Amino acid sequence: MTSTASNSNSAKKKSSKKHSASQKADTDMSKKDAKTATNHKDQKWPSGPHPTLYSPEWKEYFREIIQQKREEIMHELGYLKESSLEMTTDSYSGDSSTYSFHMADQGTDAQEREKAFMFASREGKVLKLLDQAIERIDAGTYGYCQASDEPIEFKRLEAIPHAKYSVATKKKMEEAKNSE
């Protein structure tokens, strides 16, 4: 009889947990919906379905995407600077250091700093491309293939907001590069 009662209590607890998780998910969804509703009210681009190709009325939409990506990269660069690039072998010396002077440890540390530098260099290049995309938005040339002057595919710009070429042009460029 006690096992039946404990099974019943266990089932009630599971049901209660599911119910509270469901309530939390509903609350989270309603917060997202409220945020989305405010974004739609404040947005500077057309509402409704996205077009197949870029059109100038969507420039603020892409400006926002680019600015968000810039912020993400700046955050990552700050983290890399704090964690790896500022560390030197001097910081590993002294009696309070937990790091040894073993050559393998120093080699690992040097490799980590080099990897962080390579990531920072790559992120710096992407940051430059994003800045150039903002300049193209301001100049009115954003969203158009630099080789054909045709509008770039909307989905391509969402995936790679600093894209300068349409998919067809980029494919031709890659094929020409590979055939050399």
Order of helices and strands: HHHHH
Q: Tell me, what's the shape? A: flat
Decide which structural class fits the backbone. mainly alpha
Which sheet architecture does the biggest sheet show?
none
Share of residues in strands: under 5%
Number of helices: 5
Amino- and carboxy-terminal Cα gap: 82 Å
- Rg is 26 Å
List low-pLDDT spans.
1-41
Helix content: 55-70%
Q: Mean pLDDT, rounded to whole units?
A: 74
Q: How many strand segments?
A: 0
How would you characterize the overall build of this protein?
The protein is mainly α. The chain has a domain of 92 residues. It is 69% helix and 0% strand. Helix 2 packs antiparallel against helix 3. The longest helix has 41 residues. The chain is flat and about 60 Å long. It starts with a helix and ends with a helix.
Explain the layout of strands and helices.
Layout: H1 2-42, H2 59-85, H3 103-139, H4 154-159, H5 167-179
